[in-house]
Amino acid sequence: MSNGSDRVTVALSELAATESGNRGRGAYMRIGVFCSGGDAPGMNSCVTAVVRAANGLGHQVVGIKRGYQGLLEEDFFINSQGQPVLTLRRASSWSHVGGAFLRSSRSDEFRTAEGQQKAAEILNRHQIEGLIAIGGDGTFQGAVALTQYWDGKIVGCPGTIDNDLLGTDYTIGFSTAVQTAVDAVDKIRDTASSHDRMFLVEVMGRHSGYIAAYTAIATGADAVAIPETETRSKRIVQQMRNLQEQGKNSTILIVAEGDERGGAAELIEQLENENCPYSMRTVVLGHLQRGGTPTPEDRRRATQMGSAAVHAMMDGKSGVMIGTRDDQIVLTPLPETFARHRQIPPSVLELIEEMMVS
Ligand code: F6P
To answer: What is the DSSP string of 268-317?
Structure first.
């Protein structure tokens, strides 16, 4: 490894020596925290809450940069004293901004058994006894794999804009992603109206229509295409004819990138083949939805979950994800969170059915 990593190793062993008294009393624990997979607005608030809660209980936090890949490279956040300790002062200065100040990644090396064994060895060597993983299904699959080789405690916090994890009615970043999509659609509507056009706006959600469904409802879209319901292009075109006959000069169709008929590029072709009466354009919002200042809801929920993760770990819990149900904290075994994708509630699907065509 690089000199930087050697420095980290030395600094950690020094810390361990100076704090051995605390460790002996069993009062002190070193907790690693990292963000992994697609970044999500609010991840920073979650990291800050972890540091605040852990420090408040006398524990120390190591910020692992770039998710599992950073762990494998021993790429830790180094404070101004040259120590691999994430201070509250540094974490809190980022808590209100989007992105992930610890950075994020997807690691091919960690997917292998060798990578997982190496990660376990690194964690043991650095005397990290607990890990708080902020991410989505891939992150939690990795955490479960790691438990085969590592005895420490692992607690997950759901951080993904897709809102598709079982075990929580909300994932960190979803609120901001919907807000961003709604802002964009409001602007697109202006130009759609000026030019008598129909716009197909594609939002993220590789396997999930959550962002599309909530954006469509919030913007009063005329149609939505999501993987949870069958997208019928004939029916959409018929509805567009009706709307045009009623004098509507522009329309909006929200498309989930994971719709079974394809994204906006595929759907526009199908609508053209069905002789859709409007002149059509597509807009793909893409990664725009992963950035931006987190909404108050994302910050509040992220803070609630980060704190709950620390407390769950101190209560001896491991291999679980923190979630919320009716605003109450709930814990779900990690394998259950990614066993399948979370379904959109029937009440939301019924509202869509009443408000627009799909
Ligand atoms: O964060 C989840 C997600 O936004 C999906 O909706 C999307 O398909 C995917 O990440 C794309 O991520 P990347 O380009 O980083 O692989």
So the answer is: HHHHHHTT-SSEEEEEE-GGGGG-SPPPHHHHHHHHHHHHHHHHHHHTT-
Q: Where are the alpha helices (DSSP H) in the chain?
A: 3-18, 20-24, 43-56, 67-72, 88-92, 113-125, 137-146, 174-194, 210-219, 233-245, 264-273, 296-314, 334-337, 346-355
160 lines ligand 1 (CB under 6 A): yes
Q: Which of 315, 286, 332 is nearest to 171 (CA)?
A: 332
pLDDT in tens, 208-221: 999 999 999 999 99
At 237, the amino acid letter reads: V
Confidence band (pLDDT; 50, 70, 90) for 14? Answer: very low
Going from the C-alpha of 142 to that of each of 110, 129, 145, 149, 235, the distances in angstroms are: 7, 17, 5, 12, 42
- Quick check: is 162 catalytic? yes
What whole-number percentage of the chain has pLDDT above 90? 91
pLDDT in tens, 102-155: 999 999 999 999 999 999 999 999 999 999 999 999 999 999 999 999 999 999
- CATH topology match: 3-173+294-337 vs 174-290: yes
CA of 104 to the centre of ligand 1 (A): 12
DSSP H helices in 126-173: 137-146
Quick check: pTM over 0.85?
A: yes
The DSSP 8-state label assigned to residue 58 in this structure reads T
Question: Which residue among the candidates 39, 75, 137, 162 is catalytic per the annotation?
Answer: 162
Could you tell me which CATH class the domain 3-173+294-337 is placed in?
A: alpha beta
Is the minimum distance from the CB of 222 to ligand 1 under 6 angstroms? Answer: no
* C-alpha to C-alpha distance for 217 and 90, rounded to whole angstroms: 39
User: What's the Cα-to-Cα distance from 312 to each of 42, 52, 175, 353, rounded to whole Å?
Assistant: 20, 15, 25, 40
Q: Which fold has domain 174-290?
A: Rossmann fold (3.40.50)
| pLDDT given at position 7 | 38
- The full set of domain ranges for the chain reads 3-173+294-337, 174-290
